């Protein structure tokens, strides 16, 4: 349990807006341990750092990165207030261990929503692709280290073969293929039991942002992409609002099952 140790005193002294520690029950777990200090969050609910860690882990496991308070107000309605990232960070830092890995997960989730980024094969630094139609990407870090321009292929993540050029299909390396396309081509089929046992690929690339999404076979044919939050049909690959004009969630699409995708849609934000 977290108690009044050096970390607590440091937080009290070292911040213009110190964390407020209280001795009352944890509003998320409803556990009332008198020996465990809780932090009163900006929404007014109290939570133990250990509880907050577990909650944030569950949020990240769902592919999300924004943390909202799950405690109940008046015993019936979820609070739902979004906690500022800095507030969550300061509370989790009280536990010390594992913070770096946790923060990296948050950064990856946030970056995947707002930008296209991948690790450079030369230095492993994450690079943002400015031109989403060009596979030839320049790494400034490797260029500075090597004393000459360094380019790599966004698709196969190898050093660019030949002169830098604008390419949208592939680079000059043998076997240059998109690993996500390989997953789409090689995934198993899934039976949508509740959609008249329609059979379709178990993995699809979201038609809006290109994120790979897997269907378990349960429930209806529509599924929400955790990256762009747009719902689409796994059978016809149309966004739900379009598909619903000619079909229902538990009915097959009039045009049948769209074949396995051979390219990844680019998110036009």
Automatic annotation (TrEMBL):
InterPro entries for the chain: IBR_dom (IPR002867), TRIAD_supradom (IPR044066)
Pfam families with a match to the protein in the record: IBR (PF01485)
Gene Ontology molecular function terms on file: transferase activity; zinc ion binding
Domain RING-type: 22-257
Top-rank taxon: Eukaryota
Swiss-Prot/TrEMBL keywords: Metal-binding, Repeat, Transferase, Ubl conjugation pathway, Zinc, Zinc-finger
Protein name according to UniProt: RING-type domain-containing protein
Gene transcribed to yield this protein: LOC114799282
